[in-house]
Amino acid sequence: MTCRRHGAATLSTECLDDPAALGEPWQHLWRRVRAPFAAPAWVLAWWRWFGTTRARVAVLRDGTDLLGVLPLYELPEAGKILPIGAGLADFQDALLAPEAPADAAERLLRTALAGASLPCHLCDLPPGAALRDAAPPEGWRTDLRKSDPCPLLRLPADVPPGQQRKLRMARHRAARAGGWSMEEADATGLKMLLWLHAARWCDGGVLADARVHGFLQDAAPALIREGAARLFLLRLGGAPAAACLALVAPGQLLLYMQGYDPTYRFESPGTLLLGAILEHATAAGLRELHLLRGDEAYKRSWGAVPVRNALRVLTPP
């Protein structure tokens, strides 16, 4: 990779009130970084379904080259500024080109918060996020707090013997029920995933909010076309029994949403699907399998290690 020097005279920032105004340069930048929750398809779909009229989208350019994007927005009824995507994105950070200057996140923060009177809650910052350490605007106070755990399996995983035994038992039961298989579906399989997720949770789960349903139908097909998402479908006896929407990052697979048909509870379709995805990811040479937000017992049973996100609260003077 060729590193470029940036002269202060060539760097510029601005704050936009509409994320869609970034256009194709944003897509081009994202394709170089491939952070799924920062994809234009994800951010713009979220904005269409949940956005206000108060976007604060900071951009950093070197001449005409886009080097960084930080999409924030004001939520006056909550009295805070948040990242666009908050609540549905498990990881948040500024989108930065590899050659962006060391203070790029600081410049973006300063631009996005210029003139703001509300505190800024930078939620879901994973370890290594540029926004964790970026200097705040002058006079702003900063407080970094522990947030939700996001368990992760480093590959190849050392799955505990007890979980290996459960997986073998599930596969034996599935064989007696007509056999099992895992396939990768295209975007047309999304309706099946949404049905299986709702079937798994009596209250509809996250899909109880109809806007989430619409957001996923908006964002997921575009991500699948870009290779930034994959849809895995498990069949038992030929019938759909479980599904998972996984987001794709370099060397990583992020298991975003799962669902299964309770009719097949005895065959443990969730265990079958996760076991098959784990084997697939390992064979593909991936480094990490992220099970994302929530420290549920089933994640620990696979040997996943909880990694804590952070919430950084910036308070204006």
TrEMBL record:
InterPro entries: Acyl_CoA_acyltransferase, BioF2-like_GNAT_dom. It comes from Rhodovastum atsumiense. This is GNAT family N-acetyltransferase. One of its GO terms (molecular function) is transferase activity. Residues 164-300 form the BioF2-like acetyltransferase domain. It comes from the Bacteria. Gene3D superfamilies: 3.40.630.30. Keywords: Transferase. It holds the Pfam family Acetyltransf_6.
